[in-house]
Amino acid sequence: MPTPATSKAGFLDQSLSLLPGVGPAKVKLLGEELQLFTIGDLLHAYPFRYVDRTKFHRIIDIIPNGEAVQVKGTLVTLNTVGEGRGKRMTGRIRDASGAALELVWFRGLHVLSRMYKTGEEYIVYGKVEEFNHRLSITHPEMELAARAGNLDQATFEPVYASTEKLNKRGLDTRGRRKLIRNVFDRLQPADLQEILPLPLVQGLRLMDRAQALRNLHLPPDQAALDGAVRRMKFEELFLLQLRLLQLKLVREHKIAGYTFGSIGPIFRKFYDEKIPFELTGAQKRVLKEIRADLGRGVQMNRLLQGDVGSGKTMVGLMTMLMALDNGFQACMMAPTEILAYQHYEGITEYLEGMDLRVAFLSGSVKGKARRELLEQLAAGEIDILLGTHALIEPTVVFKNLGIAIIDEQHRFGVKQRAKLWVKNKPYPPHVLVMTATPIPRTLAMTAYGDLDVSVIDELPPGRTPIKTVHFTEHRRERVFGRIREEIAKGRQAYVVYPLIEENEKLDLLALEEAYDEMIQRFAPPDYQISIVHGKMKPENKDFEMQRFKNGETQIMMATTVIEVGVNVPNATIMVIVHTERFGLSQLHQLRGRVGRGAKESFCILLSSVKLSKESRTRIETMVGTTDGFKIAEADLRLRGPGMLDGTQQSGVLQMRLADLAQDGVILNVARDKAKEILEADPKLERPEHQRLAAHLDRYMRAVKGWGRIS
Ligand code: ADP
Ligand code: MG
Question: Does the Cβ of 308 fall within 6 Å of ligand 1?
Answer without folding.
Answer: yes
